[in-house]
Specification:
Elements (H helix, E strand, L loop, with lengths): L3 E2 L13 H10 L4 E7 L18 H14 L5 E9 L11 E5 L2 E4 L2 E4 L4 H11 L4 H12 L2 H5 L3 E2 L20 H14 L5 E5 L1 H4 L10 H9 L3 E5 L12 H10 L4 E6 L2 E6 L1
Parallel strand pairs: 1-2, 2-3, 3-4, 4-7, 7-8, 8-9
Antiparallel strand pairs: 5-6, 10-11
Helix pairs in contact: 4-6
The structure holds zinc ion (ZN) (2 copies).
Length: 273
């Protein structure tokens, strides 16, 4: 089983624990490596709830992770990453890796989150997309198709995050040709660039979903194209660092994958699943 997680949040963003508490949680879970990927800062106008790291904390975050890397050397390999939102200005590195993510959209001069709550999602569709949820999906995937060039990421974060509140299909039909075309167009735009697409279990541990992102039809297409995956927990708490990794591994295998990328001191390498 994969014993590392590269998608980790702490109190610098919207996580519950300090970086060191996450390290101790990773050791308890039997991890061999842990990567921190705090949210890149968004301006307060785009983040009124304060779920991202604030600009003055970036250096503190960096030095705290690097200090922990020395302290736990030989016990656990630590990596300094960043979850770079497309609406953040690019946060200066060096970073061991970046996860590129879309969490929000602009429409009609407004900005709204796609993963805040089902109520916000419903209201956004009504107010800004004429009641057409697939128009929102098309806007989301159009934006996501540019995530690699906009963020310089190695890992594409939670590819179909906009399905967070849609497991029961109450917003839109994920098997509809129009939805699948929008998602597959983004996948097409991001393919062939040497990117890694994460299988992300974060919405399971937080009780929103029972299955990881992305959906099997996307994973099968990624596999068919020879694209790489990694398994992450998008963990916001020290007790969920390898959450549902067995389920994610099973999903990856069922979609045809035989290996997952892991980060090492020599960079990303494939590890058999
Ligand atoms: Zn995210
Ligand atoms: Zn995240």
């Amino acid at each position: 089983m994969i014993l590392q997680n590269l998608h980790t949040h702490t109190r610098y963003g919207d996580g519950k624990n300090t970086p060191e508490e996450m390290v101790l949680g990773a050791i308890r879970a039997g991890c061999t490596a842990l990567g921190f990927s705090e949210h890149s800062p968004l301006p307060p106008t785009l983040d009124p709830d304060g779920w991202t790291m604030v600009e003055p904390d970036v250096e503190r975050y960096r030095s705290e992770v690097l200090t922990l890397r020395d302290k736990y050397a030989g016990v656990l390999s630590l990596y300094l990453g960043l979850e770079q939102d497309m609406d953040s200005s690019l946060t200066e590195g060096p970073w061991d890796y970046r996860i590129g993510s879309v969490h929000g959209l602009h429409a009609n001069g407004c900005y709204f989150s796609v993963d805040n709550s089902a109520a916000v999602f419903r209201e956004t569709i009504r107010q800004h997309f004429g009641g057409d949820p697939l128009a929102l999906a098309e806007a989301y995937y159009r934006k996501l198709s540019r995530v690699a060039e906009a963020t310089g990421c190695e890992i594409v974060g939670h590819f179909d995050l906009l399905t967070k509140f849609n497991e029961d299909g109450s917003f839109f039909d994920e098997s509809s040709p129009r939805y699948q075309k929008a998602a597959l167009d983004a996948l097409d735009a991001l393919s062939g660039k040497g990117l890694i697409f994460e299988i992300n279990t974060g919405a399971i541990s937080r009780g929103y979903r029972t299955t990881p992102y992305p959906a099997p039809f996307l994973l099968r297409e990624l596999c068919r194209r020879g694209e790489a995956i990694c398994i992450t927990s998008d963990s916001h708490s020290a007790d969920t660092i390898l959450y549902a990794f067995a389920q994610a591994t099973e999903l990856a295998r069922s979609c045809g994958f035989t290996e997952s990328m892991v980060l090492t001191e020599k960079g990303f390498i494939p590890q058999p699943l």
